[in-house]
Amino acid sequence: MQHDVAKLPWTTITTIMDKIKDEQERLWYAEKALENLWSRTILEHQIGTDLYSRQALLDNKISNYKETLPIELGKRALEMLKDPYVFDIGGYGKDVLEKDVEDALVYNITNLLLEFGNGFAFVGRQYHLEIEGEDYYIDLLFYNLNLKCYVVVELKTVKFIPEFAGKLNFYLNAVDMLLKKEDDNPTIGILLCRDEHKLTAELALKDINKPIGVAEYKYLQEIPEYLANNLPSIETLEKRLNNKD
Fold this sequence. Notes:
This protein is an alpha/beta fold. It has helices at residues 10-16, 23-36, 40-48, 51-56, 65-68, 71-80, 98-107, 109-116, 162-178, 198-205, 225-228, 234-241; strands at residues 62-63, 85-87, 120-131, 134-144, 149-155, 188-193, 212-219.
């Protein structure tokens, strides 16, 4: 049976986080753990991958969410965005193809949803859109239940170039036209690259009127050794996520 953090004594939660020196960071993890009903193992995983630095520090993120979305929705979308994202794709090396990354992520969909965060529902991979007789394929399509909107994720195994933003902008327009319901919020885009090239990305987003965030992604084996050593094993994490223990 899975033991949620919300059901654990507060002393147990603080024991897990006793190595975190910053009070604000400790409080953030505690609030997220209670909000998302993380198990002890998931809390350890989130601390081990330095989720606080990747998600809570808004100034590090590249997006035009605040400029293109209603104030409250833009704020929540920015809080949802992470940089970098950390994915476990098994034994693939640095020269892995985009298709192989997608295969590995979708194969372990539970871990993928854990990394994207609370409220994400997986719609499809290589999601097909037909427009004027032409076929287009979205890398990963989600629906975020908290934000009430579709989220289009484009995955690139190379550094960011401005053309990527234009293609994602096209997909956001297409999803808004073909899939978005009347009571849905505007579709949000996340462009994941191996190197976000911060200034180039900021310039590329400057005059785009669709909400796009640009972030780097890393593989689990690439995160600093001192963090990796504190992570639960993949087997333990999968058991917890699937409620098998």
